[in-house]
Recover the amino acids of this structure.
């Protein structure tokens, strides 16, 4: 937490959508120490501390020790409650949450290769247990953080200009790498099934490649690795040609998508989350970071484990028109978001070195 980050939280907290949010709402957030979950916690706590809200936040994670470090400014606050637990196990809680947000998932390509079973369980079993919890406490709405990877590979790549929410591409189920997109697909169907059978209100968000200052140190995704290189002014090592084209989105804009889905989202609907002016090939993304950090791009051969975790999707482009139709807009382009991320992380390093 530094002044630049606080200024950003203040920007988002002034969004008019918060006028529609009950100031004493109760949130139950799985994956609270991950990149998306932790940003959402920070944003809601900022509303409490700076705007006088009294939102109760139940932040679920597997390690109290890790959470106490990540949320050291929140941990003793009366509105913050850490829930130690694993979403792949039954959730036993008497907390009457208004909103349940499932943001717990292996989103690291290395884990897809080394922990495909855990990746599947985190999505499907995690969603199952959170939906059962929402059913027991009569929650107002469940938000599932799915993924743009659930679309798979476009069937007609030559005419492809981006996925809309009704599209569906090809996923190779003969490889364990399918654990991630197929787990996301299965969890989405589970949401729809609980809606039809038990009338559990849910909204699905399909984010593209999310980045930002709340990324974890263990995140081995290309964009996170590149950003860390930019922060420390190291040359970026590409382990492919870098031709894959992707949509990107700044984590603060992603957190706001969750809020808009809670307030304005339509029950049972899915919404793509992608920033404006944020489509780039991997090699172009690396160039943006190198130009900002004044470093170079080099090439290396990936290991067998790294290759196993790579996505085979040549173009992962998401259209965000549907999300915009409920009032959401992105504040950061890819260039401005990368700059903001590197600046915040560098300032945090400087502050830690001083203390």
């Amino acid at each position: 937490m530094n002044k630049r980050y606080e200024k950003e939280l203040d920007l988002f907290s002034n969004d008019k959508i918060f006028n529609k949010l009950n100031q004493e709402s109760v949130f139950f957030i799985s994956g609270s120490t991950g990149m998306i979950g932790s940003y959402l916690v920070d944003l809601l706590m900022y509303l409490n501390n700076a705007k006088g809200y009294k939102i109760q936040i139940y932040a679920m994670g597997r390690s109290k020790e890790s959470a106490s470090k990540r949320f050291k400014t929140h941990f003793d606050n009366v509105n913050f409650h850490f829930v130690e637990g694993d979403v792949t196990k039954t959730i036993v809680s008497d907390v009457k949450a208004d909103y349940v947000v499932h943001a717990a998932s292996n989103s690291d390509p290395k884990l897809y290769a080394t922990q495909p079973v855990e990746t599947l369980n985190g999505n499907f079993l995690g969603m199952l247990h959170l939906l059962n919890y929402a059913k027991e406490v009569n929650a107002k709405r469940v938000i599932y953080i799915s993924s743009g990877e659930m679309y798979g590979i476009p069937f007609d790549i030559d005419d492809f200009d981006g996925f809309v929410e009704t599209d569906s591409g090809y996923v190779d189920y003969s490889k364990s790498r399918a654990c991630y997109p197929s787990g996301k697909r299965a969890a989405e169907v589970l949401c729809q099934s609980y809606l039809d059978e038990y009338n559990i209100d849910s909204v699905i968000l399909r984010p593209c490649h999310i980045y930002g200052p709340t990324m974890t140190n263990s995140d081995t995704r290309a964009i996170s690795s590149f950003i860390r290189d930019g922060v420390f002014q190291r040359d970026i090592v590409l382990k492919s040609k870098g031709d894959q084209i992707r949509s990107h989105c700044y984590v603060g804009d992603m957190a706001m998508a969750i809020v808009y889905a809670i307030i304005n989202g339509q029950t049972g609907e899915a919404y793509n989350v992608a920033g404006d002016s944020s489509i780039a090939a991997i090699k172009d993304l690396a160039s943006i970071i190198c130009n900002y950090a004044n470093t170079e791009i080099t090439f290396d051969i990936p290991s067998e484990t790294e290759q196993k975790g790579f996505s085979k999707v040549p173009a992962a482009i998401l259209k965000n028109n549907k999300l915009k139709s409920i009032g959401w807009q992105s504040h950061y382009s890819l260039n401005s978001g990368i700059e903001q991320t590197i600046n915040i992380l560098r300032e945090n390093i400087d502050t830690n070195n001083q203390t």
